[in-house]
Amino acid sequence: MTTGVFWNDVYNGKEWDIIGNKFQNFPGAMSRQLKLPRVRLYTSEKVSEELLLKIHTRRFLDDLKRQWYCEGVMLSAGGAVAATEKILSGEIDNALVFDVGAGHHAERDSAWGGTYASAAGPAFYNARQKLGHKRFAIIDTDSHHGNGTRDIFRNDDDVLHVCFCSTNIIEGNGTKICVDAGWRTTDDEYMDKVRREFIARARDFKPDMLLHKFGHDTCQGDYGDRGLTPEFFPRLAQEIKHCADAVCHGRYLVLTHGGDRRDVAEFIFPRIIEVLRGVGLDLNPNR
Ligand SMILES: [Zn+2]
Ligand SMILES: [Zn+2]
Asked: Ligand 2 centre and the CA of 165: distance in Å?
């Protein structure tokens, strides 16, 4: 099992919109995990404009290029594109992709909320063109509705999108689902919903890869607090990894999303590398 970690040093020096400087102490915070055998560190590179224009309008892209955060957005989307290609070509089995500004609030022609270009859109487009893989399952456990992801894949029945937000919706021939995650949920209640609403569907859907929009803004004390503990997040990654092992040869991409608690980021992402790498789950906070 080989795990790719996609990072760029641009990520740790700025107060990014919404998430702040939560990666300030990275990549050092995961130095031990990066030394594990079969963990590879990749430097994320910018997504090409040509590829972004397969998803977004020219007007949207021109506006993005005028913003101070553009570099971080393009690097984040580029990391997702490269990781998806490497997973589907067999170079790596799974990946943790750091993201400071691309993701689930970016629609084709508008964006908000800290994510200013699509990551999944160019990643899937590129994989389909180059490798012929067709079907993808997205689980979004950020606290907020993934309006951008929904907009981009609305008419694409080969993309399963299960979004844990604040409404219950089933549309798109059963491939586009929102689940009301509740505001004062326990770790176990949330995990039960993940099993019922995502894992069961992913089994039937038979995707080529799972993409996980991995927000931790749902954590206690964060800006999208739904009552979850920090320990929940590595457990969640392990649960979805087991699902990927069962349904798509372990092809699993974790894409960081919302959450601004630096202590939580430093607790969960090193452990998620261990989970992806298959060395098990260690929730001891003082190790
Ligand atoms: Zn969020
Ligand atoms: Zn939703």
From this structure: 5
